[in-house]
Write a structure and sequence with these properties.
It contains two helices and 14 strands. Helix 1 packs antiparallel against helix 2. The strands form three sheets. Strands 3, 5, 8, 11, 12, 13 and 14 form a seven-stranded antiparallel beta sheet that branches. Strands 4, 6, 7, 9 and 10 form a five-stranded antiparallel beta sheet that branches. The protein has a two-stranded antiparallel ribbon with strand order 1-2. It is elongated and about 105 Å long. It is α+β, with helices and mostly antiparallel strands. Required for flagellar hook formation. May act as a scaffolding protein. It holds the Pfam family FlgD_ig. Belongs to the FlgD family. Keywords: Bacterial flagellum biogenesis, Cell projection, Cilium, Flagellum.
Length: 228
């Protein structure tokens, strides 16, 4: 605590620096009460040591009281925001838990084909894309389906695969992968894909709520676009 003294006759007037109170920004109730206690002690000491002929002006006292009010207000705001974020995270976690056991469409490239039911999938394009090429690959790396599209605007481009091979027969049940590329601003780039997968569990972490999919990958709950 910084102090300065000035002589007025035989009486010493002490001026206290209350800005040091602003250095503590913790949010516990004990710390906030401690700051208030320290402030009151400092204020009482200053009043006791003031020059009776030159007492503290009301504006100065108001300013000093405003400093502790500011610190207390910031601490209360921090506490409130922390509580709101905790409540939001818990709420989002409860919402995410409802998808467990359901199929969700989310960023990914893995698909599970049951041997008869057509599989829906989609491209998630961030910009207008040209020369789109899509390949569906089996677990051995063999391309079982290919298709092209001249162009598409930014957004979600839905599509499906009926499971038929080039010779008209049905592909065997199992895991497949969609690989997509296209041209954006003259550059050949990999395109983001969305596939349906079963949601196995939900993870709560400091980075947010994630849904763990059947292939072991985890995606942000906010990126899940559909549930069935």
């Amino acid at each position: 605590m910084a102090t300065t003294t000035s002589s007025t006759g035989s009486t010493q007037q002490t001026s206290f620096d209350y800005t040091s109170l602003n250095k503590t920004t913790t949010t516990s109730k004990t710390d906030m009460e401690d700051q208030s206690d320290r402030f009151m002690k400092l204020l009482v000491t200053q009043l006791q040591n003031q020059d009776p002929m030159n007492p503290m002006e009301s504006a100065e006292m108001t300013s000093q009281m405003a400093q502790i009010n500011t610190v207390t207000g910031i601490n209360k705001l921090n506490t409130t925001m922390t509580q709101l974020m905790s409540a939001y995270s818990a709420s989002q976690g409860m919402q995410a838990a409802t998808v467990i056991g359901h199929d969700v469409m989310a960023p990914g490239s893995t698909m599970t084909f049951d041997g008869s039911t057509a599989m829906d999938m989609a491209l998630n394009l961030s910009a207008t894309t040209e020369n789109i090429r899509i390949s569906i690959v089996d677990k051995n790396g063999n391309v079982v389906e290919q298709r092209t599209q001249s162009s598409a605007a930014a957004g979600t481009v839905s599509m499906n695969w009926d499971g038929k091979l080039a010779d008209g027969s049905m592909a065997p049940a199992g895991q497949y992968k969609i690989v997509a590329r296209g041209t954006v601003d003259g550059k050949d780039v990999a395109l983001d894909t969305l596939t349906w997968q079963k949601a196995g569990s939900v993870e709560l972490s400091s980075s947010g709520v994630k849904v763990v999919l059947a292939d072991g990958s985890a995606v942000d709950f906010a990126k899940v676009t559909k549930i069935r």
